[in-house]
Amino acid sequence: MPLKPLARGKSRLAAAVGEALRPRLALAFALDTVAAALACPAVRDVAVVTSDPLAGAELAALGARVVPDSPGAGLNAALAHGARRVRESGPPPPVAALNADLPALRPADLARVLAAAGAFPRAFLADAAGIGTTFLSALPGRDLNPRFGGPSRAAHGASGAAEILLDGVDSVRRDVDTGPDLRAALRLGVGPATAALRGVLEPVQGH
User: Fold this and answer.
1) Which of these, 41, 42, 39, 51, lies nearest to 8 by C-alpha position?
2) Residue among 197, 48, 43, 44 at smallest CA distance from 109
3) What does pLDDT average to over the chain?
4) Which of 31, 70, 176, 194 could bridge 181 with an S-S bond, Cβ 3.0-4.6 Å?
5) Comparing C-alpha atoms, which of 85, 100, 117, 80 is closest to residue 34?
6) Neighbours of 182 (CB within 10 A)
7) What is the mean pLDDT of residues 102-121?
8) What is d(CA 58, CA 26) in angstroms, rounded to the nearest whole number?
9) Is the distance from CB of 156 to CB of 124 less than 8 angstroms?
10) What's the average model confidence in pLDDT over 60-76?
11) Domain total of the chain
């Protein structure tokens, strides 16, 4: 799971929530995403690739493994680095990349996606907009080969990854980049860290 420094994360949300709240939301989203992933019985370990000290400390306290973003070369480099670190000791496990901005993530939905992904050497799940990607997996012996950013649904398909076609896993598809995304996540029901900010988010919910 990749996480930008909080000072730079979720820049497109600033127009909807204000600059002061934006980094707090970025951290809350990550906390809720990690907590839900750790609660999924199909997940053995959660590694977060980040060099943000506050986020690293809070996510480690939840039980995540924090991997410093030593490449510092963007999202896909961070994900490839994280996958290598996870696989560097012992037999290589299957790995999956998950966005860190899924505050409505439900463990049962993630378990369904992981089960479906296991049928393919590499697999991905499109985001709610149908343009990007929120999940990418690779079985042992296969590189993750992430192509996140922009129209990544098409990029992952062109790279040979199979698209996971599942209904009823909206919580895994609902990443949050904009005000409308946030309102949709709040309607789905967000985790406790994001819910704790509900009072200051009321103006966003009302539009």
Assistant:
1) 51
2) 43
3) 94
4) 176
5) 100
6) 25
7) 98
8) 12
9) yes
10) 95
11) 1
Element (DSSP H or E) covering residue 135: strand 133-138
pLDDT tens digits, 183-203: 999 999 999 999 999 777 765
CA–CA separation, 2 and 67 (whole Å): 9
Domain of 121: which CATH number? Answer: 3.90.550.10
pLDDT-derived band at 205, boundaries 50, 70, 90? low
Q: With bands split at pLDDT 50, 70 and 90, how would you rate the model's confidence at 206? A: low
Q: Is the confidence at residue 168, as pLDDT, over 90?
A: yes
Whether residue 34 lies inside any domain: the answer is yes
Q: Which amino acid is at 151?
A: P
Tokens found for residue 34: 């990690």
What is the distance between the alpha carbons of residues 36 and 123, in angstroms, rounded to a whole number? 21
Give the burial class of 89: count Cβ atoms within 10 A of its Cβ; 0-12 exposed, 13-18 middle, 19 or more buried.
exposed
**Sole residue written with tokens 């907590």:** 35
Q: Is residue 167 in some structural domain?
A: yes
On whether residue 5 sits in a domain, the answer given is no
